[in-house]
Amino acid sequence: MFERVDKKSAVSQSFIDTYRPYFKEQSYPAKTVLLEEGKIAHKIFWIKKGCMRVWMNKDGQEITFQFFLENSLVSSIESFWQGTASKFTLETIEPTIVWEAEKVAIQPLLEESLTQPVYRDLFIDVLFQRTFDYVNHSLSFVQSTPEERYLQLCQTRPELIQRIPQHYIASYIGISKVHLSRIKSKQLKR
C-alpha cells in the first residue's frame, strides 16, 4: 500500500492522509512474532523503520520466504482479508517501528477505497508485485543453483545481504548456513 505511494503526488498524499488516522505507531524489539502461523491476521503493518521476515515451519525447520524493509505493507493478506488461518509467521528481525491498524477499524475504509479507481489501483499494484515476487522466488528454485540464487540476491537486493543475518539468507535461498559460507568463500577467492 504505502510502499507504492509517491509521497509527493497530490493523490498519494490524499491516500496517506485518509489512512494515517487509522494506524497507530508501535515499536517492537528484534525477534518479535507479530503473527503466528495458523492464527488469523487481525492487524496490518506498515514498516516505518526496521525489518521483518515471513517464514513457515516445515518439519521443525524455519523456512524464510520473504523479507520486508522500510515502507512496506505487511500482513498475511489472505488471512487478513478472508479471516482464514495464516500460512506463515511474521517476525521482526531487528528493532522495528511500524504503523499498525486493526482490521475492524479499517475494514469499512478498505471497502470504500476499493470503489475509487486511484486507490484500487494502488492496492492491485501492491498485490500483483507481491505475487510476482513469490513467483520469481519459487521459479528460482527450479531454474537456478543455490550459488546463482545468492548472486542474484546480491545483485538485486544488496541491502538484504547487509542487514539480514546470514542464517535467514541461507534459509531464504534454500541452503544451510555452512553451504552459504562455502559459496561466500568461493566468491571471495574469485
TrEMBL record:
It comes from Myroides odoratus (Flavobacterium odoratum). Residues 23-110 form the Cyclic nucleotide-binding domain. It holds the Pfam family cNMP_binding. Gene3D superfamilies: Jelly Rolls. This is Crp/Fnr family transcriptional regulator.
